[in-house]
Amino acid sequence: RRWGLLAAKVALAAAVLAYIASLIQRDAVRLEDLRSVLGRWPWLVAAAGAFCVSFTVAAFRWWLLLRAMDLSPTGGEVASLTLVGAFFNSFMPGAVGGDLVKAYYVARDRHGKRTEAVTTVLVDRFLGLFSLVLVAMTAMLANAVEIAGNAALQPLAWAVVGVIAAVSFLGLVFFGMHRLPWLVRLAGRLPYRDRLHDLYTALYAYRYRKGTALAAILLSVLNHIMGIVMVWCVVRAQGESLPLVRFAFVVPLGLLVNAVPLFPGGLGVGELAFAKLFVYAFSQELADPFAAGFNTGLLFHAVYLGVNMVGVIPYLRGRRQFQGLVASEAETGISLPSPPAGG
Predict the structure, then answer these.
(1) Which residue among 1, 69, 198, 233 is least crowded, i.e. fewest CB within 10 A of its CB?
(2) What is the pLDDT of residues 177-223, one digit of tens each?
C-alpha cells in the first residue's frame, strides 16, 4: 500500500510537471515577464518582511501551546525548532513536513510528556487550518454582494463553504467523540489504539484551556493576514494592483491547495492553484490572469524558500542531535526522513 501511494504521487507529480511544461511551450505562461520584477525589488523585500512577521507569530503561537501543557519551553528552543521545521518544509512534500520534525524533537527531549509534546504540534496545525478558513469566510462575507452578482466567484465561495463544513465537522466529531459510543467502539478497533487514546486525551485537555486556545486562534488570524499581505506584495512587485478584500478571499484557497503533498513546499501545485484562482477572481482587472497568477505562485515560492533557508543554520549547529532521528523514530512513533547526506 505504501509503495502504491508513492507511485500514485510520483505519477501525479509527473503529470503536473508535464502540464506546466506544455503551458510554457504554448506561451500560456510567460516567465520572461518576471524580469520586470527586478525593478520593483522593494516589494519583494516587503513580502519577505511580511513572511518573517508571520513566521514569528507562528513560533509564538506554538510557544503558548507548549506552555499550556506545562512543557516549559524556552524562547530559543521554540525559535530554533521552528526554523528547522521551516527548513524541512522546503525539502519535504507539501507544506507540512516541518511539523513532523518539530514533533519528533520536542517529544524526544520530554520523556515524561511525549504525547503532550506531539499534541501541541497537531493542535498548532489544526488551529492554523481553522483560522485560515476563518479568514477566508470573513473575506467571503465581505464580498457577499459581489459574489452574488458574479457567477465566476460563486464556485470559489462554495469551495470555502465546503472547507468550512469539513473542518467544523472534524472538530465537532473529535471533541464530541466521548458522547458517541459507536465512534468510541470504532476507535477501539483501530491499530495503535492505545497511542491514539493517549493522543486524544492530551488533545482534549485543551478544552479546559480556553484562554490559550483563543489567543492561539487570534495569533493564527494575524499570521494568515500577514500571509495575504505577503502575496499582495508579490502581486505589486509585478506592477499589478488588485482589490484587497477580494484578494483576501482568494489567497487562503491558494494557500490551502499549496499544502497538497506532491512537491517540496507545494511547488508546481501552488502555481497552478493561483493561476486558476486569478482567472476566476481577477479576469476584469488583469490582461492575462492565468499568467499573472502562475507568476505570483512562483514569486511566492521564491520568497518562501529564500526565508526558510535560514533554518539551515540551527540545523547544522545541531547536526549531532539530528543524526538520531531515524534510529529513534520507532521509540516516539513518529516517522520522519533522515537528514541530508553529510548533515
Answers:
(1) 1
(2) 666 666 666 666 666 566 666 666 666 667 777 788 889 989 999 99
CB 300 within 8 A of CB 270: yes
> What local confidence, expressed as pLDDT, does residue 228 receive?
93
DSSP 246-259: HHHHHHHHHHHHHT
Virtual torsion, Cα 307, 310, 312, 313, nearest 10 deg? 180
Q: Specify the DSSP class assigned to residue 70.
A: T
Question: Exposed, middle or buried by CB within 10 Å (0-12, 13-18, 19+), for 190?
Answer: exposed
> pLDDT digit string (tens) for 39-85?
889 999 999 999 999 989 999 999 998 888 887 778 888 888 888 88
Q: What is the pLDDT of residues 19-50, one digit of tens each?
A: 667 766 566 666 667 778 888 899 999 999 99
Residue of 294, 310, 297, 290 lying closest to 255 (CA atoms): 297
Contact indicator for 101, 85 with CB cutoff of 8 Å? yes
The pTM for the full model equals 0.78
DSSP string, 230-250: HHHHHHHHTT----HHHHHHH
